[in-house]
Amino acid sequence: MSSPGRLLEILTNKGAVLPEWKDAVASVDRKLFVPDTIEVDDRPLSRGERPERWLTVVYGDLPLVTQINDGRDLGEDAYRLPTSSSSMPSLMLEMLQLLDVHEGHRVMDAGAGTGYNLAWLAHRLGSGDVFGIDVDPAIVGQAIKNLASAGYSPHVVCGDAEKGYPDGAPYDRWLATFTVPEIPYAWVEQTPAGRIVAPWGGSYHSYSFAVLDVRDGVAEGRFSGYPAFMRSRTNRPPRGYLHDFLHHQDDAVRSTTTVSPRDLEAEYEAKFFIGLGLRDAWSLLVEANDGSDEATLWVLADDRKSWASVDYVPGHDTFTVEQYGPRRLWDEVEAGYRKWEALGRPDRDRAGLTVTRDGQRVWLDAAPADRGEGPQAPPPLSGHTVTSSM
């Protein structure tokens, strides 16, 4: 039977439950934090129409999309962009483990969502030491109602989470549940002697947690995990259907490459380092639907002015490239890939991040001695320091 006990059983069997969070998982009923209509696997699911299935996914280790297109009805043919969710419980536990929360800590949860994670924190720490902030007033209002129904009352406010909430500071722990391309310095200021955990990255690669410890006005640490979170709504780049980004296809410049687009898409270590320089374009691998195992990798600029495609054919060692626009996006991807190779194909865990008042810097192997210097040019991927340009 689907129940909070079933969710605890699933997470225990997967080895995801931390002893210090077991009671929160067992005591906080996820059902109270999930709306009657959600999306699972890109399909809507109504509690009224399929109550048993709804309960099964609610008490499963699954992410549940709770809002589309910022809650606006853009019509049946509009691109459906997920904009709020109840995160996968095992991923929530991974974040909390990285956050290293202890009794007595004062915690900010930036990106309040449904309030489920706030309830876990309030159950363990007490509502008085837990804060949440979200930019969407509808989400904030519903989160407060959800929390009240479960018996919790943390401080949840509506505002720009990237500016933080100084009225509740200082915090011992800062957790973000949305992806940022750079760590706001306000978070560092408001967590002066604590830890920040946030999904981090630009458009090309955003599948990393930045785990940073703060001391003397500087946040520093390394990267972990492979999370997939929604982007910050502040300066969020547009997304849409492929055809929304394509134009002037007859004017594309053709060339070839020896870098397999399929292999590249599967090489997360390479994509992390490429993404340090290519922060304003994203990739999409489209499989052929004829059983040929062929595919096309698209690289699409956030501003929709430039695009590139690389056609993959099994058994080939050269691949056709087409590019259009003021930028040659595939050339940028391949240049980043070659620089990563020249460094000896380092794993992401050799990289780290330093955040100061002047900006952020990504480095390789060891943090630079001069922490006060701001971001430099796009990364050369050579030597022992890698910098990210904002």
Write a structural description.
- Residues 372-390 have low confidence and may be disordered.
- The protein has 390 residues and is α+β, with helices and mostly antiparallel strands.
- The chain is built from ten helices and 18 strands.
- The strands form four sheets. A nine-stranded mixed β-sheet has the order 7-6-5-8-9-10-11-17-18. It has a five-stranded antiparallel β-sheet with strand order 12-16-15-14-13. Strands 1-2 form a two-stranded antiparallel sheet.
- Strand 1 and strand 2 form a beta hairpin.
- It has two domains: 4-178, Rossmann fold, CATH 3.40.50.150; 242-342, Double Stranded RNA Binding Domain.
- The termini are far apart.
- Helix 9 (268-277) crosses helix 10.
- Its main location: cytoplasm.
- Pfam families: PCMT.
- This is Protein-L-isoaspartate O-methyltransferase.
- Belongs to the methyltransferase superfamily. L-isoaspartyl/D-aspartyl protein methyltransferase family.
- It is found in: Cytoplasm.
In terms of topology, how is this protein built?
Layout: H1 4-13, H2 22-27, E1 37-40, E2 43-46, H3 51-58, E3 64-68, E4 82-86, H4 89-99, E5 107-110, H5 116-125, E6 130-134, H6 137-150, E7 155-158, E8 173-176, H7 185-190, E9 195-200, E10 208-215, E11 218-224, E12 253-257, H8 261-266, H9 268-277, E13 281-287, E14 295-301, E15 307-312, E16 319-324, H10 329-342, E17 351-356, E18 359-364
Parallel strand pairs: 5-6, 5-8, 6-7, 8-9
Antiparallel strand pairs: 1-2, 3-4, 9-10, 10-11, 11-17, 12-16, 13-14, 14-15, 15-16, 17-18
Helix pairs in contact: 9-10
